[in-house]
Design a protein that fits this description.
- Strand 2 and strand 3 form a beta hairpin.
- This protein has about 375 residues and is an alpha+beta fold.
- The protein is built from 14 helices and six strands.
């Protein structure tokens, strides 16, 4: 019954997100039609409706990408105003990262998120740090830009192209602000407003957030997980894992175990998370499965465990995230121990090295390379003498 309720909650969250997006798209379509009717004519042919639909889709996409950029910029601006320091900013494959005090621009396809602004938090004082403006900064920026866009529409409503552009940007801005700012849960994903509300009520969640952000600062500077203070890695209580901040903390702990090569403990932790009611999303679950498969193979665990992990869904994930370093590392050990194919494993290793050259975080490269070398050494040891 508990599992059924969990699935139902996640499904309802996804439906809510889909409904919200459909409403924004519909609002854009009807708005374009209304503007065009006012400017040009009231009767439309079937061909003109198709053009209108195509225009709506393109305009919504451009507006959405713009609002995503503005959202992350909002986190940066309000973060700086409240004492946070810049670490990196990325959208799509483009990333700006601060390395040894210098801002560097890179293009890399192997990042885990589509857009993110990473910042280092100010020191905690009496168990507190500023978080409201930082978390709601993205929504504030979307709302402000949306309101300005509506003003632009009102000012230039006689000019068709500008009127349509401003109107769609305004709808997407206000819609994105509400989608992220009003406390809501979309399946296992908590929006910024929900996280801000949680942080105001939970000192443990606030400390977990500070720890993760401080850890990201150290990782950006080139430190690996194993170099960070061990007292930072405290696995949350099961009841706390129903929100995304504490779930991220659990994954933070699992990453530490992988980096210090405690594969038995990492496997145990991943298996434990699988049995719990958590806020782990599909992407996080897929990366955890990569780690679990690596642990199973490096520990010579039962064949049944490996077969349970290597599913069609995982193989599709490998194809989707093929340029991610963790996927390369998992494919490398998979080709060695499951396929017994040294040629494919070597090709995967070479592709890893090529992508490592354009990857912004040196600590990730070093950690994953260590795991690849460990798998290679173990495979050689397992071969009969003379082969």
């Amino acid at each position: 019954m508990k599992k059924k309720n969990k699935k139902k909650t996640k499904r309802n969250g996804r439906y809510l997100m889909l409904l919200f997006c459909l409403l924004m798209g519909a609002a854009c379509g009807f708005s374009i039609r209304a503007v065009m009717d006012t400017i040009f004519k009231t009767s439309w042919s079937e061909k003109e409706y198709i053009y209108l639909l195509a225009l709506t889709v393109i305009a919504v996409y451009i507006a959405l990408m713009t609002q995503i950029f503005l959202h992350e910029a909002g986190h940066f601006i309000f973060g700086r105003l409240t004492g946070y320091r810049f670490l990196s900013f990325h959208i799509g494959t483009c990333i700006w990262v601060k390395v040894y005090g210098h801002l560097m621009y890179m293009k890399t396809p192997g990042l885990r998120t589509s857009a993110q602004c990473l910042m280092s938090p100010p020191p905690m004082k009496d168990g507190k740090m500023p978080f409201v403006l930082y978390h709601l900064g993205g929504s504030i920026m979307n709302m402000v830009c949306g309101i300005f866009a509506f003003w632009g529409y009102y000012s230039y409503r006689e000019v068709s192209f500008l009127a349509v552009s401003f109107l769609i940007m305004g709808i997407m801005g206000v819609g994105t602000a509400l989608l992220n700012g009003v406390p809501m849960r979309f399946g296992t994903v908590d929006n910024d407003g929900y996280n801000a509300l949680l942080l105001s009520q939970s000192p443990s969640a606030l400390y977990a957030l500070w720890t993760q952000m401080k850890g990201n600062e150290m990782l950006t500077k080139g430190y690996q997980f194993k170099d960070l203070p061990s007292e930072w890695f405290v696995f949350p209580e099961e009841e706390e894992l129903k929100n995304s901040i504490m779930t991220d903390m659990a994954i933070f702990c699992e990453s530490y175990l992988m980096d210090i090569h405690r594969f038995d403990k990492a496997a145990e932790m991943i298996d434990k998370l699988e049995t719990m009611d958590t806020a782990i999303d599909k992407m996080q679950r897929a990366f955890l499965t990569c780690d679990r498969l690596y642990c199973a193979l490096i520990l010579d665990q039962d064949k049944e465990i490996v077969e349970r992990l290597v599913t069609k869904r995982l193989l599709k994930f490998f194809e989707w995230k093929y340029q991610n370093l963790s996927v390369f590392r998992t494919l490398h050990i998979y080709n060695l121990f499951c396929k017994n194919d040294e040629v494919k494993a070597r090709m995967t290793e070479l592709l890893f090295e090529l992508n490592a050259d354009i990857y912004p975080y040196i600590s990730d490269v070093e950690s994953e390379m260590e795991l690849i070398e460990l798998a290679g050494a173990k495979f050689k040891e397992s071969r009969p003498p003379g082969e």
